[in-house]
Structures are given as C-alpha cells and as structure tokens.
Amino acid sequence: MHRFANPTRFVRLAGRVQPWAAALALLCLGVGLYFALFSSPPDYQQGETVRIMYVHVPAAWMAMFCYVVMAAASASSLIWRHRVADLAAKATAPVGAAFTLLALVTGSLWGKPMWGTWWVWDARLTSVLILFFLYLGYIALQNAFDDPARGARAAAILAVVGVINVPIIKFSVDWWNTLHQPASLTRLDGPAIHTSMLTPLLLMALGYTALYVWLAIIRMRAELAETKIRAIRYRQASGAAPAPQES
Amino acid sequence: MRGFTDTLRRELRLALRQGGDSLLVVMFFVLVVVLFPLGAGPEPGILSRIGAGIIWVSALLAAMLSMDRLYQSDFEDGSLELLVLSPAPLEIIVLAKAAAHWLTTGLPLIVASPLLGLLLNLEVEGMAVMLVSLTLGTPALSLVGAIAAALVLGARRGGVLISLLILPLFVPILIFGVGAVDAALLELTYRPQLMVLGALLLLAAALSPWAAAAAVRQAVA
Amino acid sequence: MVAFSGTRLTCIRGERLVFEDLGFSVEEGTALYLTGANGSGKSSLLRIMATLLRPAAGELCWNAVDVWDDIPAHHDRTRYVGHPDGVKPVLSVGENLTFWAAISETRSEQVGQSVQTALDRVGLDRLSEMPARFLSAGQRRRLNLARLLAAPARLWLLDEPAVGLDEGSTAVLESMIASHLAKGGMAVVATHDAVPAGARRLELS
Lengths: 247, 221, 205
Fold this sequence. Notes:
The complex is a heterotrimer of chains A (247), B (221) and C (205).
Chain A: H1 8-39, H2 52-80, H3 83-115, H4 123-142, H5 148-180, H6 195-240
Chain B: H1 4-18, H2 21-40, H3 44-67, H4 69-76, H5 79-85, H6 90-119, H7 124-151, H8 158-185, H9 191-220
Helix pairs in contact in B: 1-6, 2-3, 2-6, 3-6, 3-7, 3-8, 6-7, 6-9, 7-8, 7-9, 8-9
Chain C: E1 3-13, E2 16-27, E3 31-35, H1 42-49, E4 57-62, E5 65-66, H2 71-77, E6 78-81, H3 93-104, H4 111-121, H5 137-150, E7 155-159, H6 167-182, E8 186-190, E9 200-203
Parallel strand pairs in C: 3-8, 3-9, 6-7, 7-8
Antiparallel strand pairs in C: 1-2, 1-4, 4-5
Helix pairs in contact in C: 3-4, 3-5, 4-5
C-alpha cells in the first residue's frame, strides 16, 4: 500500500505552493474587500447594496470553475488512474459547494433590496441552485461506500456525467426563465462596468482562486495523511489477526 | 447488437413474471397526481393551468422510484458480474435494460396519462402534445436513470441517494416536456420544444450506455 | 502452445494490500489450483484473471499479449463461476441457462442443443421446465456450472466450485474439468479441498 499511496512529487510541490497561495489569498481578499466595501463608489441605481456584488459574482464564477476542475480531475483519474487527480477532485468538491452556497446566500440577500423578496426564480439563481444539488450528490455519493476507492470511482463518473449536463441544464433553465419571467429582472450587473468597480471585482476573483488552491492543498495533504494512517492500521490488523475476512 | 434481444427478452420476462411491479409504479403515479388537487384546491382553472406540470413531475417521481430495481437483483444474486464478463458488449446490455425499464414503466405511465389529464381538466389540444412529449421524454429518463442506478449499487441508503443524483439531471427533460404542453395550451408553436426533447433523447441514447456501462463495471469490481 | 500468465501482480482491495508481486502461468491442457487461508486472495486473483478487478500493478497476458488490450476477446474465451450462482428464481431452469448460453454464443441455432446436453450432464435435464425457485442450493450450483458446458470456452475460472455439492455431483464436476483439460482447455480453480494428485498448485499466503 505504502508504495502506491505516497505521491512524493506532489507532496513536495504542495508544500512549496501552499504558503504562496495562502499569502496571495489573504492579500487579494484583504485589499479587494477594502476596495469593495470602502473605496469604490456606490452604484447610481442600486446604492450601497451593489457592494454585495463583489462577494457574490466571483463566488458564482468559482462555483462553475470548481465544478469544471472537479470534472477534469475526475476524468483524468478515470483515464489514467492517477492518485493525485483523485485527491484533487475529492478536495475540490466541498470548496466548490461552499462557493456555490455563498453565491446563493449573497444572491438572496441582494435580491431582497433589489426585487423586494428573498428568492426569485431567476435563471441564474435557479441554475446555481441546481449546480449546488449536483455538488451535494457528488459529495454524498463519495461518502456512501465503506470502501473509499469505490466511492471515488463512482463519484468520478458522476462528475463527468454532471459536467456534460451543466450546459444543458443552464440552457434549459435560461429558456424556461424567458418563457415565464419578464426579462427586466435578470439584470443583475450592468452591461458596462466602471474600472473603479472592476478592480475590486478582479481582486476578489483572484483572491478566491488563491483561497481555493490553498484550501485544496490543505485538504489533499490531510487526505494523504489519513490514507497513511489507514494503511498503518491495516498492517497492524493483519499482523495481529491472521485471518481477516475473505475478499 | 449482440446481446440486445436476448437481454431485452430476459428483462421483460422477469418483469412480467415478478408481476405487479409496473402496476405499482402506475398506481404511485396516479396517487401523486391525485394528491395535487387535494393539496392545491380543486379549482378547475388552476388545475388545468398546472396540469401538465403535475403530470410530468409525477411521471418523473415514478420513473425515479422504479429506477433502483434496474440492477439491484442482478447485483445481489451475482448475475451482474456475469453480464459484465459476457462476450456481448456491456453497453448494449445496459441499453437493453434501459429499454426494458421504459417498456415496463414508462409506457404504462404514458397510457395512464390521458385519464389523469381528464381529472386535471387538461384541454384536448394539450393532451395530444403531452402524449408526444411523454413519449419522447420518458425513454430519456430511463436512459439517464440507468447511469445513476448503477452508481449507487452497494451504497448505504442507495434509495435516497439515487434521487439526489437523478433529479438535477432530469431538469432539462422536465422543462421542455412541460414547455411543449404549455405552448400548445397557449396556442403557440410547440415544435421547438418537442425537437429539443427529441435531441435530448438522442443525446441520452448515444452517451448514457457508455456512462452506465462504466458505472456497472466499477460497481462489480 | 497457448499460455495464460500473470507477472508481478499486486492487488489492493479497500485499501488493504491483498497480495504483491504474484506470478502464475497456465498452459493448454493444464489446471492450476489456488489454495490458501481465507483472505489470502484466491477470489481476488480469480477476479483479476476474469478482468472484474484491475490489478494495482503487474501484467496479465494471454500468449504474451496484454489481456486488457482486448477485453472482448478475453471474455469470449473465459467462463467465470463465482460464489453467487446468478440464478433467477422466476425463470425456468432451461430459460436461465439458455440466456447465458445465448449471450455467450454467436451461433444461435446451436444454443438449444448445447443447453440440453449441458443440463443432461449436470443431471438437471428432467427439471428443465421447472421454475428455478424450487431448486436446492446444490441444484442451483449445478445449474451455474452447466454454463461452462452450454457455452464452451478455453479458460475456466472457478471459485470454490464444489461448495454445496454432494459427493456424486463433485465427481461430475471433477470429470467435467478432466475432459475440459483433455480437450486442450485450461482451468484455474480456487479450493479448500484436497488438490488432485499431480495437479499444479499455487499457495497464497
């Protein structure tokens, strides 16, 4: 087991990247939040509520980004059976789900002053909600088996099936929405965005991405450590009891 | 198509001899539809407006409920391993299984739906389009469901899990299925919706056997 | 000379290392018996040979060609008998066997004849029309073994095939294996019983 569970090159690389990702995340999020909350101008229509956008929009971007990364990692784990790809997919899922939830909650908070109600079946909110369910299904499937390897394989297939479906779902929800809703509600961010708003937006997006890398590395290293502990336990068990169950 | 007819014949024989299963699914379908007027009130105007949605959502739930039987008994008695090891391509075998699932659950749902349409005061123009949309949509449900059913084999609480996996994937089929009927009721063109539904069916028929076969292989490993 | 072999095979099940660096080889007309305690990996090795499981490392070869390069060919020449019997209680004995023969055999006109011969050999010919739910455990096992005869193949992979069989049926099984080998077939058999005198064995620890 030990020979296959210890991708040394990844461990070395991860150890080197982690502090940089952490520093970049803290810096960008700090500066970005300062710009977003204090130094950028309020919107001429939406007033101060526009500041929710700086948290909301990059979170929605990350929700999509993380799903694509997860599916790509799953596909490579299915094709090349690479352990690190497996770990990356597993580590990405909860982070992506958290970003998706953040996008949903901030979207709802933004909806209250904008639309006068906490929830509107707006096309974007609806497809993000379905994306959230896709994440939950992935995580639940992964944890539904006694054998972690089995859970990883099943979840990998689901992620690949899911990523083919994401554009189809997006397309159908958009179509459904234009049929049932007047178009005026969907205008969340204006067509032309001013630089004073774009800078904090991009800073936040960069900060989120660095945060994701940081968290994913922590989760992957923890997962590797856990695998090692389990391997030691199996060795101890097989040393103590000569006849484990027939497999 | 080596293995398709043999597997289809076997699955149909099993479904008919075990009997009752398809009948139970149809009864569940009827029951869910009947619950809606009880929950939403019996006003004919409301019911005829949301009738297509009710019938589609109920069909979705019925298809989902029957999905976990697709491989479960084969998984338990060791037949699934032998199917994986058979010289016939596993993709064809799962396709045959999905086809059998549609014939034993999807088709009875379609047959029962006009009656339920009457109960919900669905207008006649809508009824015909609903039949077409169900005919295009329910095979796609069986095909997509065949993937999820294989993924949850051997999982703890597989029954609950399968609904979490399947329902998000069913969303496009639901939207265009109901959309076609709504358009027909508003006397608008409903061809595009049916065409998209047909496209989704073709896409599912082309891709889901591969995914389902991969899922079955990893389930018996 | 046809040969089926494995080199440096490693198997990991549920993160547990089952075996490592294992090698074997079976030639035309010979059988290999796998012995060893529970959990030593007999079943896992058979499942690897059948391609149900993919080894974590090592190679599986048929005539020096990697088995994983042509899976359909391997499934064509291999019959696997595992612990569960895969018998459908609502189908008749004949229908059960006919299905497995039909999806394994390309020449469909011969299926009926070979199913009848196979049922004859395992002593289930009179029960052909009987729904399989009335069969005893031993009869179900014999029905499962009848697959080997109804759709013949070069390589038999048998996982404790004698479990649940009485003495007479065990003798039938042994003669089935002997005539299979005599025709140039190959067999890998996991067993807890005594290995026939002179047969090759692989002890897993």
